[in-house]
Amino acid sequence: MKHFKFYDKQDVLSLTKLRKFETRLGESIQVLADKHQLETSLTQSIADYVVLGIPEDIGVRANHGVGGTDSIWVPFLAAFLNIQSNDFLVGNELLLLGHFDFGDLKYLIEQNAHGHDEKIDAYRHAVITIDEEVEELIKIITSYKKIPIVIGGGHNNAYPLIKGAAKGLHKAGLLPLAQINCINLDAHADFRPAEGRHSGNGFRYAEEDGYLQKYCVVGLHENYLPQNVWLDIVNNPFLDFITYEDIFVHEKRNFIQAVAHAASFTDDNYTGIELDLDCIEHTLSSAVTPAGILPLHARQYLTFTGIDCNAAYLHICEGATQLTDGRKDDSTGKLVSYLVSDFVKAHSQ
User: Fold this and answer.
1) How much is the pLDDT for 349?
2) Whole-angstrom Cα distance, residue 256 to residue 251?
3) Which of 18, 174, 218, 293 gives a 20 to 30 Å CA spacing to 309?
4) DSSP states of 13-43 as a string?
């Protein structure tokens, strides 16, 4: 994991605004006792959740997308560490581990790859390196029966999260096979063909490699469902989805009923909880939507799944505070801080 930066308490406090008579999350959140002894420190920590960032947009660029998903991690931290530590969320149940920095891979591609196709190929090759390092870290965290909370980057990271969590939980003796389920609140299925790693096919790779058992997408937009993916899903009893149109346009079931269905579909195993910020209306992401769910729905989704699912990990991805085309929104980090706190409050019950 040569690309990972482990945090100490000074890193945390540098983003925490201290105030008399108040305690902020940054003051109570845990860090590694010894950043050179990861596994020993995890064994000693009382934290149930391990927070880490993957601020990269290589997977998005590999999928012909707009870059910028590397911009959400620090704004999220600046908001999250300044939440009040109180009876609703104390903070000592969380361990802030650090973040990956794949900037050197991106720099090499930008300097040496010429032409659109050559850059796409280079980005897809770089995603494999990201996969390997993320999988290794997630496997370690889950093998010590802690829940990773992963922020930032493209949805390509779903693949190493699923693979690492499945291996880690199996190693911990909690799974007979290295397989987990997954629920994804997303406008897209991210189940495109396995023709090179990118942000649009993480779940396909996880399913074909045998680490993803059941997969359910909530809020899928009919306008962005490729016909070949649609046929793959309807012909596979281990795959399911509920479209945005069925929930909000045709009103066949309400949003909570849709989430409950997904939770029921996946309740026979540990389940990865995925939230792609491009499903939230007008939220800055790699694929901003003018017609999506409200932030309230996203908060309800993480509260419901936090309570009802046997969570293997939480992954919030594709968000940005600044895209490479110039669009900006400083509020995205604060939104993600709400979502993480909602999940932890619900799950810790």
Assistant:
1) 85
2) 12
3) 293
4) HTT----TT--BHHHH-B--S-TT-HHHHHH
How far is Cα 94 from Cα 17, in angstroms, rounded to an integer? Answer: 18
Domain ranges of the chain: 4-347
pLDDT in tens, 269-294: 999 999 999 999 999 999 999 999 99
Identify the residue whose tokens are 């999506």.
Answer: 292
Measure the N-to-C terminal CA separation of the chain; round to a whole number of Å: 33
In 3D space, the residue among 102, 93, 273, 90 whose CA is nearest the CA of residue 183 turns out to be 273
Tokens of 259: 């989430």
H or E, element range at 9: helix 9-13
Question: What does pTM read for this prediction?
Answer: 0.98
Starting at the edge strand found earlier in the chain, the sheet holding 311-317 runs: 4-6, 94-100, 49-53, 147-151, 311-317, 271-276, 180-185, 212-220, 239-243
Q: Which tokens hold the place of 220?
A: 């899928």
Closest to 1 (Cα-Cα) out of 146, 100, 90: 100
Structure tokens at 17: 């605004």
In tens, the pLDDT along 193-244 reads 999 999 999 999 999 999 999 999 999 999 999 999 999 999 999 999 999 9
Question: Does the domain at residues 4-347 carry the CATH identifier 3.40.800.10?
Answer: yes
Please tell me what DSSP assigns to residue 190. Answer: -
Residue 273 backbone dihedrals phi, psi, to 5 degrees: -105, 115
DSSP string, 55-111: ---HHHHHTT----TTSSHHHHHHHHTTSB-SSS--STTEEEEEEE--HHHHHHHHH
Q: Residue 26 corresponds to which tokens in the numbers above? A: 């940054």
